[in-house]
Design goal:
Helices cover about 30% and strands about 25% of the residues. The chain contains 15 helices and 16 strands. The chain is α/β, with parallel strands linked by helices and about 425 residues long. The strands form 3 sheets. The chain has an 8-stranded mixed beta sheet, sandwiched between helices. The longest helix is centred in the middle third of the chain and has 17 residues. It has 2 domains: about 170 residues, no CATH class; about 200 residues, Rossmann fold, CATH 3.40.50.11440.
């Protein structure tokens, strides 16, 4: 009989204890105020990621701009997310807590774009698309985004202000163009586009947020538009050093309780689960996981289960909550089609676990290396099988919360676990 123990990984937990105070300091700094001087109406660009303290940051920025006599609006900067529609993107922000009622500024959503010109790369010409509302209805743009490693590639710029300025504010058309040439669009084209966008007088700059493994804000930086390309790479390296990972590299079965767009762009972070699944790109070296089962999708995803193809099995509940139109818009933009394939649908969590263990019955349930996590953004607390537990030994970064117990299920055949 399979038994699971609850463990807790201990990660560096340095964070900003006085975040509101520190943010107020940035807002009152001469560097920030130089960036908004002379502006009358500023668009605050907000993406689709579940960033800690996002509502507070946007609200305080809105209040400060109003106090300076500037009218703020909020614009979605999320490429093709939200089914690539204005209403869909506004709904995504609402799910993240961003609305007129919560932040005190109107959310103006549109997928229309204008072009700032063209750039050349590898013999091709590419238009520089930007959000039409931001460029035609305001005289300033401020970006707010988390800087972190990207799920699909490694480069000088990954997820952060550069990506938001190009792919995010490029709306569906801009995102589609960048992704049309695969990861080269992210590695090489994105910085070329950013030079034009950030060189436009419209952009004041951006707030770069860094989070630790516990999703606490541990870094907050104001970068003027002329500083972003030079300074974001160092912030990215800080963020990468804080990235968590699973406690062992060799895993037979990983059960993920939920996937979600606010957790990762593809529902599960490929660099946590060790699966990239992008045609032409080398697969990740670690971790090496033989079978992955996913149980549910978050409400905040609005049914967009892009990335479900990274799993081997999903529950019927997850399958029935999928919005295939949302997946279609997203994957046709990214062109990473393998990630949208629907895996084998099993009835519930009990069947997922049974099928996975049956695959390893030759060595016995007790020896199967099994890990259960809430999602790929929360891998501090998890459940591990006895085989995994025996590998952890007396590691200083591992705490055993409760000893191995037989897996129990509720009336819906969900595992009874505290995650």
């Amino acid at each position: 009989m399979l038994k699971l123990a609850k463990i807790r990984q201990v990660f560096p937990n340095r964070c900003i204890e006085s975040l509101e105070e520190d943010f107020s300091g940035l807002l009152s700094s001469s560097e920030f105020n130089d960036g908004i001087k002379g502006r009358k109406r500023i668009a605050i660009a907000v993406g689709s990621r579940g960033i800690s303290n996002l509502v507070m940051l946007v609200k305080k920025l809105v209040d400060y701009l109003k106090g300076a006599g500037i009218e703020p609006i909020v614009v979605p900067a999320m490429g093709s997310h939200g089914c690539a529609t204005a209403d869909g993107q506004k709904a995504v922000l609402n799910k993240l807590g961003i609305s007129r009622e919560t932040v005190g500024a109107e959310v103006v959503s549109s997928v229309d774009v204008i072009s700032l010109g063209e750039v050349e790369m590898d013999g091709g010409e590419f238009a520089v698309y930007v959000d039409k509302v931001s460029w035609e209805q305001t005289d300033g743009v401020i970006l707010i985004n988390r800087v972190k490693q990207h799920t699909d590639f490694s480069g000088r710029y990954e997820s952060g202000l550069v990506k938001m300025a190009t792919v995010g504010l490029g709306n569906h058309k801009g995102a589609q163009q960048v992704h049309s040439i695969g990861t080269a669009g992210l590695k090489k084209l994105m910085p070329c586009l950013a030079e034009v966008v950030l060189g436009d007088d419209k952009v004041s700059g951006g707030f770069a947020v860094v989070e630790n493994a516990y999703h606490q804000t541990c870094g907050l930086h104001w970068l003027g538009a002329d500083e972003i390309l030079d300074e974001e790479p160092a912030i990215l390296q800080q963020a990468k050093a804080l990235m968590p990972k699973l406690p062992v590299d060799e895993i037979d079965v990983l059960i993920v309780r939920q996937m979600g767009k606010e957790i990762s762009g593809v529902g599960m972070d490929p660099k946590i689960i060790g699966r990239l699944m992008i045609w032409g790109e080398e697969e990740l070296v670690s971790p090496r996981i033989e079978l992955i089962g996913v149980c549910d999708i978050t409400d905040e995803s609005c049914g967009n289960a892009l990335g479900v193809g990274l799993a081997d099995f999903i529950t019927r509940r997850l399958f029935e909550r999928i919005d295939f139109q949302a997946i279609k818009e997203n994957v046709l933009t990214s062109t990473f089609y393998q990630r949208a394939k629907v895996p084998l649908v099993l009835e519930d969590e009990r069947e997922i676990l049974e099928v996975c263990l049956r695959h390893f019955e030759r060595r016995g349930e007790k020896d199967a290396k099994v890990i259960v996590i809430k999602d790929t953004l929360n891998i501090s607390d998890m459940y591990v099988s006895e085989s995994v537990l025996s590998q952890l030994g007396d590691r200083d970064d591992i705490e055993v919360v409760s000893g191995p117990k037989a897996v129990a299920f509720d009336s819906n055949n969900r595992m009874v676990l505290e995650l």
